[in-house]
Write a structure and sequence with these properties.
By secondary structure, the protein is an alpha+beta fold. The chain has nine helices and twelve strands. The model has no long low-confidence stretch (mean pLDDT 85).
């Protein structure tokens, strides 16, 4: 439980920090006055003022914000340094910068992963890689490096054949024969249903071969991998919106649980998860929904076309609608989290 909390705070904190840094840096560069840069919501845990900006960390690390002077057009106290007093193109840059930073963060994370741990290529051999604590394989006494020989007398000659045997074996007791070093051993293994994978699993990863790329190749691979994942996410959204696949939503509770599971495997899987989540956050935040950056960007486009800002009441109503939509979605996702975590076995 403690590891899950630490992992969730780490992931959420990093994503929010980079997102808000995007808004903060571009606001400063475009001459806007930033009164506060905060990570988290709620009461302040600690704060320090440097120059004109108060930097604070707050109790709940599931968000953050920049208090940019003049976000409300009626607030003219900041004069020419107010957000609303700046040209539309500068305001657009500030609004888009949060999501752009969420697209840059995965490149940094993937680069670090490649440089530190290298490129891992799955081995076709039926040899165990990481064994997750508390899962069926670990409880059966299996360890990293064990080579699976037979399951219930059936020869296992590849990792694929091992997965095919256990994936439909929820609750079944398998006799597993394996080799550890030069010693032949056997144990009983009972696969358990995994809600995320939607199949029976035993909590192991296959073994891998590792290649250490250089600086240039790591950078190229990080950019390529980020682009590939973005394409896959966008394609997945298209599939959802066209009704070709069902939406599988996860709220903060579900994300925290997944972060904890990744942390149990190791730092690299956790960083990889954070990279995927950052891309997801960046894409979703660009949706043209009021209260999201994408919705704010649309109001700026409308202002550019009309030659004047939208009316205060129109903006207020749009923000209320957007807030209700987001809260409805959040409640639905959280209800799915609760059902998945507490009521599904």
């Amino acid at each position: 439980m403690l590891l899950t909390i630490i992992a969730a705070v780490f992931v959420f904190g990093m994503l929010v920090l980079f997102h808000e840094l995007g808004h903060f840096i571009t606001a400063k560069l475009t001459g806007m006055r930033v009164d506060e840069f905060a990570i988290g919501f709620g009461p302040k845990l600690m704060s320090v003022k440097y120059g004109e900006t108060l930097y604070s960390i707050r109790v709940f690390p599931l968000g953050g914000y920049n208090n940019i002077a003049g976000m409300d057009p009626s607030d003219t106290e900041a004069g020419e340094r107010a957000y609303s007093a700046k040209p539309i193109w500068k305001r657009m840059i500030v609004i888009l910068a949060g999501s752009i930073m969420n697209f840059i963060l995965p490149i940094i994370l993937f680069f670090g992963i490649y440089m530190i741990s290298g490129i891992h290529t799955p081995s076709p051999e039926p040899v165990l890689g990481d064994v997750i604590a508390g899962k069926p394989a670990a409880e059966a006494g299996l360890k990293t490096g064990d080579r699976i020989i037979r399951i219930d007398g059936q020869e296992i000659d590849s990792w694929k054949s091992f997965v095919e045997v256990v994936r439909n074996g929820e609750g079944k007791v398998y006799k597993v024969e394996f080799k550890r070093g030069n010693e032949d051993k056997s144990t009983s293994l009972i696969p358990a249903y995994d809600n995320s994978a939607k199949r029976a699993m035993v909590g192991v990863l296959g073994s891998v071969t590792t290649e250490k790329p250089g600086l240039v190749k790591s950078t190229q691979l990080a950019v390529q991998n980020t682009g590939l994942v973005m394409y896959q996410m966008l394609n997945g959204l298209v599939q959802i919106f066209t009704g070709k696949t069902a939406a599988d939503l996860a709220g903060p509770l579900g994300v925290a649980q997944m972060a904890g599971e990744m942390a149990q495997i190791g730092l690299v899987p956790l960083l990889n998860f954070a990279a995927l989540l950052s891309l997801n956050l960046g894409i979703i935040n660009l949706f043209p929904i009021p209260a999201l950056d994408g919705g704010h960007f649309v109001t700026l486009l409308i202002e550019a076309v009309r030659g004047k800002p939208m009316g205060a009441k129109a903006v207020q109503y749009a923000q209320i609608v957007g807030f209700v939509l987001l809260m409805t979605l959040m409640l639905f996702a959280t209800s799915q989290d609760i059902a998945r975590v507490f009521f599904q076995k």
